[in-house]
Specification:
Layout: E1 5-10, E2 13-18, H1 19-33, H2 46-72, H3 78-112
Helix pairs in contact: 1-2, 2-3
């Protein structure tokens, strides 16, 4: 059985973080970082579609991490339910970005032939 809290040493001080805190930090960081691959490209290009795939993968993996962690909990309060719902919605959104971009790439490839 894993401990409920983890000690993280930061210099001389230590911070106690729970599993939910870690999941919220990962989820928030992925929402901030996910659009970065898309920013330098022009909409409608193949590079933009590949960047959308990267964005979707980042969102999907972090949302899956959060959803699996929240589903493992037996008792979940309102905050846990909201976090679970938000992560599942983001998981679907990230998967749709990946699938839509791959469909675009496959159609643009067949148009070039």
């Amino acid at each position: 059985m894993r401990p409920a809290f983890t000690m993280v040493a930061l210099g001389k001080k230590s911070v106690i973080t729970s599993g939910r805190t870690r999941r919220v930090i990962v989820y928030t960081a992925s929402l901030i970082i996910a659009p970065l691959p898309v920013m330098p490209y022009v909409k409608g290009t193949r590079e933009y579609a590949f960047a959308l795939v990267a964005c979707g993968v980042i969102l999907s993996l972090s949302s899956l991490y959060v959803a699996r962690g929240e589903l493992k909990l037996k008792a979940r309060g309102l905050l846990g339910m909201k976090l679970l719902a938000a992560s599942l919605i983001t998981l679907l959104f990230g998967m749709s970005l990946v699938v839509g971009s791959l469909i675009y790439l496959s159609q643009s490839q067949s148009l070039l032939d």
